Amino acid sequence: MIDLIKEDIACVFERDPAAQTIWEVIFVYPGFHAIVWHRVSHLLWCREFKFVARCVAHLARWVTGIEIHPGAVIGRRFFIDHGMGVVIGETTIIGDDCTLYHGVTLGGTSWNKGKRHPTLKNGVVVGAGAKILGPIEIGSNARVGSNSVVLKAVPDGATVVGIPGHIAGAKDAKVTEIANKMGFDAYGTPADSPDPVAYSINHMLEHIQLMDKQMCAMKKAMHQAGIKCGNEELSELSDCELDK
């Protein structure tokens, strides 16, 4: 338990630049308080002291404004930033290194017993006000945009935005790779995004990728025709290979 608490404190400094000292985290961070209370209530829940576990969780909710059912399974280095209004249901499973912002709901869509809440794999980030509903799986390192409503499973590494949630961002993996190399991250920017700058850059990246493929084809054809081309190597992002 002590090691888990130390990790929870350390991850606050990694993900919140406003954190100044350990004492600040310990005394005035409700997200940290909520996860510590939950680890206690979950331990009681697993040992069949369910009424006591619910009482501990209820007290934590009253103090922090964050409601986590003691039956929820939460991994290591879990961070809730700000936290007010966060609700995590009973059968929720959260992996390691996940981050939630305020107003997030991990809820169910059924009154039936059994698994009815989401599963978040490692490294998931859920933006403020987002709702993830039902026994669906959010893949590793996925991102859920603020105020999104997610009702279907999300693959690893995807970014989901909108109501209902849909996968956003560049369609071509190569375009995404070029964007990352350039330092451009079209986070949560679908094709119909109202952000004209991100929209334009996304189309420029697609155009660059198309030109790169055409240049590769031209260079290969000239090489086969016996026309010498310059020996300058293209970027490592290029998948062009000339026949020797």
Helix fraction?
Answer: 25-40%
* Structural domains: how many: 2
- General shape: elongated
What name does CATH use for the topology of the largest domain? UDP N-Acetylglucosamine Acyltransferase, domain 1
Number of strands: 15
CATH class descriptor name of the largest domain: Mainly Beta
Mean pLDDT: 82
Strand order of the largest sheet: 3-6-9-12-14-15
Provide the low-confidence segments as ranges: 186-193
- Tell me what portion of residues adopts beta-strand conformation: 5-15%
The CATH architecture name of the largest domain reads 3 Solenoid
Which helices and strands, and how do they pair?
Blueprint: H1 2-15, H2 22-28, H3 30-46, H4 50-64, E1 67-68, E2 73-74, E3 79-80, E4 87-88, E5 93-94, E6 99-100, E7 105-107, E8 119-120, E9 125-126, E10 131-133, E11 137-138, E12 143-144, E13 149-150, E14 159-161, E15 166-168, H5 173-182, H6 196-224
Parallel strand pairs: 1-4, 2-5, 3-6, 4-7, 5-8, 6-9, 7-10, 8-11, 9-12, 10-13, 12-14
Antiparallel strand pairs: 14-15
Helix pairs in contact: 3-4, 5-6
Short account of what is shown:
The protein has 244 residues and is of the alpha/beta class. It has helices at 2-15, 22-28, 30-46, 50-64, 173-182, 196-224, and strands at 67-68, 73-74, 79-80, 87-88, 93-94, 99-100, 105-107, 119-120, 125-126, 131-133, 137-138, 143-144, 149-150, 159-161, 166-168.
Describe the overall structure.
By secondary structure, this protein is an alpha/beta fold. The chain has 2 domains: 167 residues, Hexapeptide repeat proteins (UDP N-Acetylglucosamine Acyltransferase, domain 1); 75 residues, no CATH class. It is built from 6 helices and 15 strands. Strands 3-6-9-12-14-15 form a 6-stranded mixed beta sheet. A hairpin with a 4-residue loop joins strand 14 and strand 15. Helix 3 packs antiparallel against helix 4 and helix 5 packs across helix 6. The chain is elongated. The termini are far apart. The relative contact order is 0.07. About 3% of the residues have low confidence.
